[in-house]
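Hi all, posting the design record for the shared folder.

TITLE: backbone redesign
STEP: 1 of 1
STRUCTURE INPUT:
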């Protein structure tokens, strides 16, 4: 069955990096939830108790829990939303047979299929696909891009201080990604700016401040290949 959850009806897991900063101000999460149209209660797991209890390593991660507290379904990553909704409706009916439910939603599936660049992190704890793969932990170090960046790989240049959960930009800090994707996102925190260039053309300057959050670096109508170059001002955390 999996972990027990008392009498809980559902569990929501939030990625550690965002929740650490958000938890410093309890007023921020309700504001972000309201901006997304979320009207139900949002739990804040600021000491990772729920995250660690489930041994969670993914984001997003869905854990559907029935009324007695048994985990009935687990799903990692995007997609398969209709199945998740059907199972939620099933569990609600089991717990409350006479409960009136709204009609099923008809949300189009927009999760890209086919070969895509994998998710990675910049912090050394879960850093993958860095080329070259040598990283200096918790100390400012100067990095250099490889002569040629393989598809799906990440390169660093300039000064970065790589921590377990994030890397902090220093002088001349740049990051390059050779990707296949429809959309490219990056969680950013700290204070400063991030200049984004795609295929050698400057596309936007992102102004960063406040609680770390997800930023869109690239968007296309379908999966495509390309190279993103990011120039971060000192103090930006990725």
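Okay, here is what came back for every position:
SEQUENCE:
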């Amino acid at each position: 069955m999996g972990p027990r959850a008392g009498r809980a009806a559902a569990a929501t897991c939030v990625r550690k990096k965002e929740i650490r900063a958000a938890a410093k101000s309890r007023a921020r999460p309700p504001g972000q939830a309201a901006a997304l149209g979320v009207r139900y209660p949002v739990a804040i797991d600021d000491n990772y108790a729920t995250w660690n209890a489930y041994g969670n390593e993914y984001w997003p991660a869905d854990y559907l829990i029935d009324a007695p507290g048994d985990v009935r379904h687990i799903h990692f990553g995007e997609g398969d939303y209709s199945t998740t909704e059907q199972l939620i409706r099933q569990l609600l009916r089991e717990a409350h047979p006479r409960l009136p439910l709204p009609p099923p939603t008809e949300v189009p599936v927009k999760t890209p299929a086919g070969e895509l660049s994998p998710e990675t992190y910049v912090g050394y704890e879960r850093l993958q696909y860095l080329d070259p793969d040598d990283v200096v932990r918790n100390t400012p170090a100067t990095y250099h891009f490889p002569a040629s960046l393989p598809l799906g790989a990440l390169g660093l240049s300039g000064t970065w201080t790589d921590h377990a959960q994030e890397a902090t930009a220093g002088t001349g800090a740049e990051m390059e990604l050779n990707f296949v994707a429809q959309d490219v996102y990056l969680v950013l925190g700290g204070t400063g700016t991030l200049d984004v260039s795609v295929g050698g053309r400057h596309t936007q300057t992102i102004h960063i401040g406040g609680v770390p959050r997800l930023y869109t670096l690239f968007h296309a109508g379908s999966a495509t290949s390309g190279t993103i170059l990011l120039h971060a001002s000192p103090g930006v955390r990725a």
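COMMENT: Confidence is low (pLDDT under 50) at residues 1-27.
Let me know if anyone wants the other runs.
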